[in-house]
């Protein structure tokens, strides 16, 4: 306990130190902003010199504007304004006050990826307004006209220093404040011209905000209960029977209170020395969540509201209205306290109010606030959360809770992920995200009040869609958020856009357990009101259903058979809800990541056959039946006590489920002229553990013989017990012919349902003997050479120690995270398609699974993926952004790693990086076991760790602190660099497809399209010799549904009796049992790599590609002296040069042409042709 406390204190201190360093980086150097200050001063002087104009009727003023001010400015009136019946007049005079407001004025602004805003408030003169200008859009019309006057002043002004118009120095345009067309503003960005007005280096955007004084319009006319449209809006138009316009009034009131809010926050900043630091940290955090200065349309919660919330907590918010935070707290403590309050407070039921004297009016405010949340400002008049939708509040609180969790997590360093990287990419942030091309729809018409007040339809649509999805998806989802896209700025000479499409992203965080269920239970038909609402929601999808417990309920059923397709039930539900309730949105609904299921898990060679299912259920059932049968066999010399699975197809992580031999037979019958070789059967592998006994032999050779005899006995017992084919395989190709040791003996079985199983026999005595022989150089070697013993021992440890341990942990994680297995399969498909995984020279299968496990165990800054697609892109993100050169990937796969283990891993990693020498032969171990990839395989304690080998991809666990289990030899640096580059390119590709619908399908298909241009050689293989495992693995045969044609041409079900099974196995068993794991192409490439290990590196897709790529190794063609023991095919340098130099005399170099000829000769019958793209 004391150690955990000390660790927690250390993590908190470290996090606080990192925060302080972050503040140093993001604080603005105000003293160095001379060009920006100069620009603000010139704006101030320019605006104060605006020429006054006499009053004119509004329509005449509009007509005269081009002549009086500028014909290069289009007045930014909101759509439909000024009203045709408007009779009021418009005057112009200089502003009565100008201030630099916002975070820049308070000096709480920070650097972000998008820069920062500098808000200049231009207070329009009181003489411009009448006390009743809140009515009928008069205020917003005058505000837009005055903004046009300010724009014209900018257009016409000439900088006295440069003699050039300001438009030559600045880009000036209009934009909508937080996406509301009723509140246009001016935005100014500098051009990099090195002038005195060039503030482009600051990445600042100056925003000109017209405001009014607190006295211009009486505040009683801006209260929530006031009706600013008398005669147009009546009590009958409002749901609560009150003729009021609270949101409309609040927009005017906000403009009137800007100065008051600035003064209040200035006092708070002056009274708390760390208030600015806390606000700065909050702005960084908000920016990473997508609350950015240039994207205020997407979110209404901003840095100003955060600052007010922090000010409130310094005054109140606790029990009995006590303050939650203290002025004596540090900036980090203030930020964390505010974030915790945001994460846990119930804003819907517990309103926030600065002034105690307003408490008595609380009920009145709630009745007319027309907003789901209430946070009254210090004046007690303005609801600061009036525009925040439930979707945005849910998203904000979810992100706050998630951040608090990661900040408190002692596993690793989450600071970089939380505060230095954006979290807004929907592919990474959500389990599912759907694109709406235009959220403005006629399916949700505006209410009469919103239509009259010209409220943005986007906000109303978001709220109604949110409510629809919450009612439809229920507990399948943990979070639903809808994020409209930012509205672009427009040029000064253009009118505001009126019918611009506004796209939106629907983001879903799902409950991993509930999201894939097939049936949703609704209310009982006895509850007539609820049942009617359910049927109205689901329409024809709703049905009355009786369940096994006898209850009869309204329900919906979603028919998705396979595990992969059930992941899309959520998308089916959203599409149906949209199609029923808002069909205009449904036609443009696009679930982009759904294409992955069609392009990655589907097989191009699929033959449609009835009765075939792409599922792990049937082969796992066959394996479990075999396990039970093995444990009950009584005629064995030693009983079987345990059977440990070790292969990926027994933990749901192989790309395709295990294939049946019966399936292979059917596919071969459908292959015309035997054009395709479909003999490959990937086995389900397991290790047998026998009961302890003194009957075990005492020497290694005899143990090997005993294992072969035991397998023969086991084979006979199985044949007597039930129909099955089994064959004992010694596998001599994995050991030298001179050695009497054959540790690769195994038993291959074809089960009654046709599924292949490979069994290995583990003997603790054999492991101990191998270790003694392999690691003791003084011991006489009578059975095999030292190097071969080391190789055998390494393979033995991999098969019987590492693979079972790895299998157990990965399967446990897949059971705890339902989407993890699908993620692994998607990532395997991607790496294999690009020829970078699952082969002897690339990324090992187990290493890939550990990388995916890291995505689920350390998901910061997000939650653990709830879908395979989200996990897939998170894995690509990890591959692309992890600093493989400077940081190990520490996978806490047991979820109980002690701090000292992390320290040990870091120490070993630094030692590995500091050493650049190659391991001596005595310390190097090659693992090349049966059906296994070559890899360094020391004993778990690190006894055989090759000292000095640089490990490019350092993946460590508590059991493997030296990264020796899976990545000690592979992937090499060139493969890792390619893997990182492809991950980055893949993420960029799908990011582009999110921005545009053009060629979207082709872009996503390119995720699996390998680029062959970077290879030096291309080996084109003969399709007749390909094993095509993907072809065979398309589906699994279920004997109960296996159909064939009878003599009448009709389909009939196979007889599944024992006699029928035995007769079918007689046809396929003898062939299939000899082709289990038989992959001739992989074996050929392994031989090529062994022969040309110093010359070439080969890359192949293990799922049936007919092209193998090869790269010349660096230095392969360098000149070298001729040596008699050289294994390279060389040619004298003098023969290749017309004028050989003296220095090249006696030197040789690689004879590349002959090497290529040799490869073609060795691959006769397998290699169809070779394309030479580059010579070394």
From TrEMBL:
Descriptive protein name: U3 small nucleolar RNA-associated protein 22
Recorded family membership: Belongs to the NRAP family.
Domain Nrap protein: 118-268, 275-421, 428-582, 613-815, 817-917, 946-998, 1012-1170
Keyword rRNA processing: yes
One GO cellular component, as annotated: CURI complex
Record key words, sorted: Nucleus, Ribonucleoprotein, Ribosome biogenesis, RNA-binding, rRNA processing
Organism of provenance: Dimargaris cristalligena
Highest taxon above the source species: Eukaryota
Transmembrane residue ranges: none
Region (Disordered) residue spans: 914-944, 1123-1146
GO biological process, one term: rRNA processing
UniProt main location, coarse: nucleus
């Amino acid at each position: 306990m004391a150690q955990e406390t000390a660790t927690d204190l250390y993590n908190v201190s470290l996090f606080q130190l990192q925060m302080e360093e972050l503040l140093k980086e993001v604080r603005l150097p105000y003293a160095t902003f001379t060009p920006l200050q100069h620009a603000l001063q010139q704006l101030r002087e320019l605006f104060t010199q605006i020429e006054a104009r006499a009053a004119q009727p509004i329509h005449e003023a509009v007509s005269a504007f081009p002549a009086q001010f500028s014909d290069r400015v289009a007045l930014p009136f909101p759509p439909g304004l000024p009203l045709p019946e408007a009779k009021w007049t418009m005057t112009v005079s200089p502003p009565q006050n100008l201030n630099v407001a916002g975070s820049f004025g308070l000096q709480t602004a920070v650097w972000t990826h998008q820069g920062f805003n500098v808000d200049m408030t231009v207070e329009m003169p009181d003489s411009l307004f009448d006390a009743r200008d809140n009515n009928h859009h008069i205020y917003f019309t005058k505000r837009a006209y005055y903004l046009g006057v300010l724009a014209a002043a900018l257009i016409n002004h000439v900088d006295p220093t440069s003699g050039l118009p300001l438009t030559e120095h600045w880009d000036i345009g209009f934009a909508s404040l937080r996406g509301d067309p009723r509140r246009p503003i001016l935005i100014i960005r500098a051009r990099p011209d090195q002038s005195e007005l060039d503030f482009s280096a600051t990445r600042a955007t100056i925003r000109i905000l017209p405001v009014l004084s607190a006295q211009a319009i009486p505040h009683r006319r801006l209260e929530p209960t006031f009706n600013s449209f008398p005669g147009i809006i009546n009590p009958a138009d409002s749901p609560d029977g009150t003729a009021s316009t609270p949101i409309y009034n609040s927009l005017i009131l906000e403009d009137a209170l800007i100065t008051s809010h600035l003064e209040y926050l200035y006092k708070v900043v002056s009274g708390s020395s760390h208030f600015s630091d806390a606000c700065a940290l909050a702005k960084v955090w908000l920016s990473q969540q997508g609350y950015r200065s240039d994207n205020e349309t997407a979110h209404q919660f901003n840095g100003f509201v955060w600052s007010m919330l922090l000010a409130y907590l310094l005054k109140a918010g606790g029990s009995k209205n006590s303050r939650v935070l203290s002025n004596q707290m540090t900036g980090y403590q203030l930020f964390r306290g505010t974030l915790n309050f945001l994460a846990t407070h119930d804003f819907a039921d517990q309103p926030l109010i600065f002034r105690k004297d307003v408490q008595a009016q609380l009920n009145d405010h709630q009745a007319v606030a027309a907003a789901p949340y209430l946070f009254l400002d210090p004046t007690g008049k303005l609801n600061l959360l009036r525009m925040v939708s439930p979707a945005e509040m849910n998203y904000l609180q979810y992100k706050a809770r998630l951040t608090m969790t990661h900040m408190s997590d002692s596993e690793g360093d989450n600071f970089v992920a939380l505060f230095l990287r954006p979290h807004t990419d929907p592919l990474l942030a959500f389990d599912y995200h759907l694109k709406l091309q235009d959220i403005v729809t006629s399916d949700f018409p505006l209410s009469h009040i919103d239509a009259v007040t010209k409220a943005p339809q986007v906000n109303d649509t978001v709220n109604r869609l949110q409510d629809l999805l919450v009612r439809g998806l229920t507990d399948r989802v943990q979070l639903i958020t809808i994020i409209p896209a930012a509205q672009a700025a427009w040029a000064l000479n253009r009118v505001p856009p009126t019918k611009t499409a506004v796209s939106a992203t629907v983001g879903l965080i799902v409950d991993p357990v509930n999201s894939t269920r097939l049936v949703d239970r609704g209310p009982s038909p006895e509850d007539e009101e609820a049942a009617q609402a359910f049927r109205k929601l689901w329409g024809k999808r709703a049905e009355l259903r009786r369940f096994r417990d006898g209850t009869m309920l309204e329900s919906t059923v979603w028919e998705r058979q396979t595990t992969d397709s059930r992941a899309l039930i959520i998308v089916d539900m959203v599409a149906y809800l949209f199609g029923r309730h808002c069909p205009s949105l449904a036609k443009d609904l696009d679930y982009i990541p759904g294409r992955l299921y069609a392009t990655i898990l589907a097989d191009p060679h699929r033959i449609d056959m009835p009765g075939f299912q792409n599922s792990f259920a049937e082969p796992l059932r066959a394996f479990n039946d075999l396990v039970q049968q093995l444990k009950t066999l009584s005629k064995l010399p030693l009983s079987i006590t345990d059977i440990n699975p070790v292969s990926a197809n027994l933990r749901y992580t192989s790309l395709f489920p295990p294939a049946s031999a019966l399936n292979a037979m059917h596919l071969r019958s459908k292959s015309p002229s035997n054009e395709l070789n479909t003999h490959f059967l990937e086995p389900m592998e397991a290790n047998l553990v026998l009961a302890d006994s003194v009957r075990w032999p005492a020497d290694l050779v005899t143990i090997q013989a005993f294992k072969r005899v035991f397998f023969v006995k086991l084979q006979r017992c199985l044949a007597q017990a039930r129909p099955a084919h089994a064959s004992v395989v010694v596998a001599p190709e994995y050991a030298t012919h001179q050695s009497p040791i054959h540790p690769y003996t195994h038993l291959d079985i074809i089960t009654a349902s046709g599924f292949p199983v490979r069994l290995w026999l583990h003997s603790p005595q054999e492991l101990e003997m191998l270790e003694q022989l392999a690691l003791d150089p003084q011991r006489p070697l009578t059975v095999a050479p030292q190097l071969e013993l080391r190789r055998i021992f390494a393979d033995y440890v991999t098969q019987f120690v590492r693979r079972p341990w790895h299998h157990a942990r990965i399967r446990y994680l897949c059971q705890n995270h339902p989407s993890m297995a699908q993620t692994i399969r998607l990532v395997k498909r991607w790496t294999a398609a690009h020829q970078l995984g699952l082969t002897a020279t690339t990324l090992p299968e187990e290493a890939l699974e550990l990388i995916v496990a890291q995505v689920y165990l350390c998901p910061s800054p997000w939650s653990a993926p709830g879908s395979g697609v989200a996990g897939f892109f998170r894995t690509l993100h990890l591959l692309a952004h992890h600093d493989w050169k400077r940081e190990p990937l520490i996978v806490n796969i047991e979820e109980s790693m002690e701090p000292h283990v992390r320290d040990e891993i870091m120490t070993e990693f630094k030692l590995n990086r500091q050493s650049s020498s190659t391991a001596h032969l005595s310390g190097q171990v090659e693992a090349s076991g049966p059906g296994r990839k070559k890899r360094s395989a020391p004993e778990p304690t690190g006894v055989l760790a090759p000292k000095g080998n640089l490990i490019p991809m350092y993946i460590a666990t508590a059991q493997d602190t030296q990264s020796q289990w899976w990545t000690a030899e592979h992937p090499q640096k060139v493969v890792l660099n390619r893997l990182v580059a492809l991950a980055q390119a893949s993420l960029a590709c799908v990011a582009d497809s999110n921005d545009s619908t053009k060629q979207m399908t082709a872009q996503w298909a390119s995720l699996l399209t390998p680029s062959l241009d970077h290879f030096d050689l291309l080996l084109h293989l003969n399709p007749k010799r390909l094993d095509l495992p993907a072809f065979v693995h398309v589906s699994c045969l279920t004997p109960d549904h296996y159909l064939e044609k009878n003599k009448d041409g009709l389909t009939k079900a196979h007889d599944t009796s024992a006699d029928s099974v035995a007769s079918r196995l007689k046809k396929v068993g003898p062939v299939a049992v000899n082709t289990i794991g038989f992959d001739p192409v992989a074996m050929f490439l392994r031989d090529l790599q062994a022969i040309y290990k110093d010359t070439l590196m080969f890359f192949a897709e293990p799922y049936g590609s007919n092209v193998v790529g090869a790269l010349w190794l660096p230095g392969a063609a360098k000149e070298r002296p001729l040596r008699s023991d050289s294994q390279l095919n060389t040619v004298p340098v003098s023969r290749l040069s017309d004028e050989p130099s003296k220095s090249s005399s006696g030197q040789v170099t690689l004879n590349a042409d002959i090497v290529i000829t040799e490869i073609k000769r060795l691959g006769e019958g397998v290699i169809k042709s070779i394309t030479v793209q580059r010579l070394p």
